[in-house]
Amino acid sequence: MRRALNKKRQVERSAETQQLLIEAAIEMLCEKGFAGATTANIAACAGVTTGALHHHFSTKDDLLFGVLDYVSERIVLEFRAFGRKGRGQPIDLQLLVKQLWSIYGGPQYWSIWEIIMGSREDERMRERLLQHRERTMEALNQCWLTMNPNLTFIDQRTARVLDLLLSSIRGLCMDRFMRSDEQYFHDQLTLLVASIEPIFAERRSLAE
Amino acid sequence: MRRALNKKRQVERSAETQQLLIEAAIEMLCEKGFAGATTANIAACAGVTTGALHHHFSTKDDLLFGVLDYVSERIVLEFRAFGRKGRGQPIDLQLLVKQLWSIYGGPQYWSIWEIIMGSREDERMRERLLQHRERTMEALNQCWLTMNPNLTFIDQRTARVLDLLLSSIRGLCMDRFMRSDEQYFHDQLTLLVASIEPIFAERRSLAE
DNA sequence: ATTAATCCATATTGCACAGTACGTATTACG
DNA sequence: CGTAATACGTACTGTGCAATATGGATTAAT
Question: Which has the minimum average pLDDT: A2-6, A49-53, A76-80, B23-27?
């Protein structure tokens, strides 16, 4: 469905196919959920067969590990870029929320949640998921510290406010299952900014 | 696992078994997720066999409809009781959040989300889910109007603030997959109250 | 140029699942 | 009391799934 087989080096083709499979897996996880994202579905979406899938990923869990690593990497890079862009400038809450929404509110990250919820009894997967969480949270923290060069660590209060922000975005994301008008999401994000702003200001004044 | 078979009327026993199955379904949905909540699992959890399950609910979807109706009913009743209790009194935001958390943040409501996410491609189920949403939201609105007798309808702004509240609670609920310390949830709810309070006050002053 | 390795497809296997068929014991009813 | 209906349980069936086995075609290595 997607594969365009052109003549290349084996290593390149191999990497390309793996990437195709990872992206197809993400797409199927978002579209059909954990239970609906079968190997056949994923393979078909990537334009290959289950044979190819099992050649590159010996097990379905392996493929999901691939998804996890891929998304983790992207998130880390995005946070790093965002941190550099806002270095030293006063925090623009609206921009921050927009960034967090683009990372965690998009359909792509939802695939991770599907994995989290679908593999809740798989011990090996849970370990990996905790690592993923560790990595991405660390990236967010580093991003924050880069943007506030005068800080050396993140106080508890700030961490919790960020947690609340993430929770709200997560919950808003789930509204996609029932609503589809983008205007709603935009409005709610604006409202979220307005509601968080005061306790952010409070934090700032406490720091002084 | 759960059934205590005492001699009763057939209708009573029948109703009791159905209730047992519904509660077992909720438990399995929460514990193992949509994919993990198999008919065998649910039946075992209820202390019966799949034969009994299929006797009372001809299809698995029927059982899920039962779950949906049961939870909807409970929510409607809870909102009604809460509305009566707070009739005419000024809104206690903290109490409201606590109530919403007890309804939507508990493990029970999570089963509904499992159904929503797991049946996203099932048109019949989606219809039912929309009805459920309609009913419970209407109950929340009625609750709100009961608590504010001077109001005749809910303005857009208030509706959106309530939506934000629900989103945040929903997102916080998902933290259960990664965290387990109740203190965290308590803290975040407090923070949520603090963040919503100002925009609530603003709404109030606008009304005057 | 052979040989080996890689990439991928087709066909198959084994298993878990929802749903069915049917049997049995208990309860309701005339 | 006898008969029908109900409430289950047991055993089975068909299906969809992840995973395996195998073979062919292309690419790399010697």
Answer: A2-6
Which residues of B fall within a CB distance of 8 Å from A172?
A: 164, 167, 171
Chain centroid to CA B4: 27
Q: How far is B6 from chain A (nearest CA, A)?
A: 35
Query: Residues A17-54: pLDDT tens digits?
Result: 999 999 999 999 999 999 999 999 999 999 999 999 99
> Tell me, what's the ipTM?
0.93
Contact A53, A43 (CB under 8 A): yes
> What residue spans define the domains of chain A?
1-58, 60-207
Among residues B197, B198, B193, B200, the alpha carbon closest in space to that of B158 is found at B200
Cβ-proximal residues to A65 (8 Å cutoff; 6+ apart), any chain: A128
- The residues of B whose Cβ lies within 8 A of any Cβ of A are 32-36, 113-114, 116-118, 120-121, 129-130, 133, 160-161, 163-164, 166-175, 177-178, 187-188, 191-192, 194-196, 198-199
- Where residue A179 falls (left for φ over 0; alpha for ψ -120 to 50; beta otherwise) is beta
Q: Give the architecture-level CATH label for domain B1-58.
A: Orthogonal Bundle (1.10)
Q: Which residue of A has its CA nearest to B193?
A: A195
> Under CATH, what is the fold of the domain A60-207?
Tetracycline Repressor; domain 2 (1.10.357)
